[in-house]
Write a structure and sequence with these properties.
Pnp Oxidase, Chain A, 35% strand, 12 strands, binds flavin mononucleotide
């Protein structure tokens, strides 16, 4: 019989729930989300409440918190523009990703702060990170209010995907050969994980 510490989330304060959740659901992929503000300011920030939701249609979800004085810039921009790009975070952009997570004023271009080059997406009015191995151009599919979380879940549908053509595919499929991607995953707080050994286990 295992010996567990037992928690009832409803009886915990928000900080403790956050500490538990973000060290239990690990490792989390990072959606590095880039948008334009209403005034044209470019914005990019990382989000690890981020996941694949569906392939058909191709949906991703990102849960964005609110500050005391209102929504984070990413959420405000997504609400006004209805679009965003997700940029794959590889190890060589870990430092820039971290720089871009600062609490900067809406008029600050976080590409400049983080020393990143940007390019305009093809189909939507959003910038993306030049050098990111994969970029998805997304339109908002649904916004889901998560109550007094205070987080808002944005579900985006990818309408165009850019994959660095140097990344090999597996055989004649479009699986990206993940041994050639160097993803960074979020653990808790300032702690990250890199991919270690990759194993293949055939399904029963
Ligand atoms: C690796 C990492 C993951 C993060 N994940 C989230 C997240 O899932 N949701 C969130 O609201 N903030 C998250 N943050 C914090 C935001 O990046 C931060 O609040 C940022 O300033 C938001 O920028 P914005 O105001 O330009 O949107 C994360 C930060 C880091 C470094």
């Amino acid at each position: 019989m295992s010996d567990y510490d037992v928690f009832d989330p409803a009886a915990l304060d928000g900080r403790t729930r956050y500490q538990l959740l973000t060290s239990i659901v690990v490792p989390r992929p990072i959606g590095w989300i880039s948008t334009y503000g209403e005034d044209g300011t470019a914005n990019v920030a990382p989000f690890s409440y981020y996941s694949a939701l569906s392939a058909s249609p191709l949906l991703v979800g990102v849960s964005i918190g609110h500050r005391r004085d209102g929504p984070k810039d990413t959420l405000a921009n997504i609400r006004t523009g209805g679009v965003f790009c997700t940029n794959f975070v590889s190890q060589d952009q870990l430092e820039a990703m971290n720089q871009s997570s600062g609490d900067y004023a809406p008029e600050v271009d976080e590409f400049e702060v983080a020393g990143l080059e940007r390019q305009d997406a093809d189909l939507i009015d959003a910038p993306f990170v030049v050098g990111a191995p994969v970029v998805m151009e997304c339109r908002v599919y649904k916004e889901v209010d998560l109550g007094d979380a205070p987080n808002t879940l944005i579900i985006g549908e990818a309408v165009r995907i850019h994959v660095d053509s140097r990344i090999p595919r597996v055989g004649d499929t479009q699986f990206l050969d993940t041994t050639h991607l160097d993803p960074v995953a979020r653990l808790w707080g300032p702690t990250y994980a890199m991919l270690g050994e990759q194993v293949q286990i055939p399904r029963p």
